[in-house]
Structures are given as structure tokens and as C-alpha cells.
Amino acid sequence: MVLKFVVTVIVFAQILAPIAEAAQGRAVFYDPPYTKSACYGNQYETMVTGVRNNLWQGSRACGRRYRVRCIGPTYNFPRACTGRSVIVKVVDLCREPCNGDLNLSRDAFRVIANTDAGNVRVEYTP
């Protein structure tokens, strides 16, 4: 009986842990080419993001991956979100004035949102 309870608690903890780590913010996008980056100089991945200074942490964010999901429009834009999520790699600093917490590549942004929305509210988890 005790073992069954412990296993149940562990399973729920594993399910809820990613939810507890989720942060919310805003995402915008930038157009290709994505080759110049503060982290890697020339890089050729397309599912990438720049991050605002508070996430950048003096370049310690380089290589960190986030799962990003659109949770709604920043402005009154109908059907901004696609309902999908995307995993992106931090390759750059989004320099001020940065209009979002995450500055996604256009390729990554279009997975989670309509690019015509331009700026969306997101939930992101490491």
C-alpha cells in the first residue's frame, strides 16, 4: 500500500514538474538569414531564438533549449495560435529594444503562431 502511494506521488511529480517550471512572456520573430549569432558566430540551424537580457545571463543561455507554446495574442488578433509547440535553441541575445522575451526565428514562430500576429503571448519551459 505504501509502495503504491510512493509510486503514485513520483508519477504525479514527473507529470507536474514541467508545468511548475513554465514561464510566460512574449515572443516575436526575425527573418532569415539566421547565420550570425552571439553564441556561435555562423550557425545554420533554423529552430532558434534570441533571448532578452534577463534570460541571456551573460551568454550562459547559449545552447539552452526551450519548448515554446503560444497561449494567445498580445494584441487583438483572431486565431493567432496554431495549438502546436516548438523546441528552439538559444543562439543570440535580443538586444534592446527587444519587443519580446523570445525573438524566435520566423521558421520557429510560424510553427506556434500566425506570423501576421507578429507578437504573441507564450509559455516556455527549459
From TrEMBL:
GO BP annotations, alphabetical order: systemic acquired resistance
Pfam families reported in the protein's UniProt record: DPBB_1
User: What residue range is the signal peptide?
Assistant: 1-22
Q: Which InterPro entries match?
A: EGC1/2, Expansin/allergen_DPBB_dom, RlpA-like_DPBB, RlpA-like_sf
SUPFAM superfamilies given in the database record:
Barwin-like endoglucanases (SSF50685)
Instruction: Name the source's superkingdom.
Output: Eukaryota
Question: Which GO cellular component terms, listed alphabetically, does the Swiss-Prot or TrEMBL entry include?
Answer: apoplast
Q: What is this protein called?
A: Expansin-like EG45 domain-containing protein
Residue intervals of the Expansin-like EG45 domain: 25-126
Write out the entry's keywords from A to Z.
Signal
The taxonomic lineage of its organism, from the top, reads: Eukaryota, Viridiplantae, Streptophyta, Embryophyta, Tracheophyta
